[in-house]
Amino acid sequence: MIKKIRLTVNGIVYEAGVETHHTLAEVLRDELGLLGTKIGCNEGECGACTVLVNGKNVSSCLMLACQADGCEITTIEGLSKNGEHPIQQAFVELGAIQCGFCTPGMIMSTTALLEEHPDPTEEQIRKGLAGNLCRCTGYQKIFEAVKVAAENIGKESDVHE
């Protein structure tokens, strides 16, 4: 069955007819061409498909596209309008990426984490990224990148105040 939905993705409004059984991840990738959202396990276990829905991190492989009707969605492609976002920069500079498959989900979870905890503790970082799996990095560099990103975003905020 097809249902018409309206999504605001990265600030752009989309209207589409989608199969009611299609996930948000499928629609983002297959209908909108936003390939930064990865589909890993398709069971909500790996975090590769993490996007922000109304500012909260969501495993888009578990959310039906119809459930996102009327929502604001941010994907990795929409994180920064002017080059790399400070979180992306920190991940690159600290070597927190290797194969890159988990990186978009890690960065989106970090975005949600830093919105809630602008200066997170190690425990908050570990808890905030607990739903994201990485087979390459060993996590330590990811945790360090989150801390550096928080510091850099804090410095940017101080400049704009």
Describe this structure in words.
The protein has 161 residues and is an alpha+beta fold. It folds into two domains: 2-77, Ubiquitin-like (UB roll), CATH 3.10.20; 86-156, Orthogonal Bundle (DNA polymerase, domain 1), CATH 1.10.150.120. It is built from five helices and five strands, in the order ββαβββαααα. The chain has helices at 24-31, 86-93, 103-116, 122-128, 140-160; strands at 2-9, 12-19, 50-53, 56-59, 72-74. The protein has a five-stranded mixed beta sheet with strand order 2-1-5-3-4, with helices on both faces. Strand 3 (50-53) and strand 4 (56-59) form a beta hairpin. It is globular, with a radius of gyration of 16 Å. The mean pLDDT is 94.
Helix-strand category: alpha+beta
The number of helical elements comes to 5
Count of discrete structural domains: 2
The number of strands is 5
**In CATH, what is the homologous superfamily of the largest domain?**
Beta-grasp domain
The helix/strand series, from N terminus to C terminus, equals: EEHEEEHHHH
The major pleated sheet works out as:
5 strands, mixed
Helix share of residues? 25-40%
- Enumerate the strands of the largest sheet in spatial order, edge to edge or round the barrel: 2-1-5-3-4
Unreliable sequence segments: none
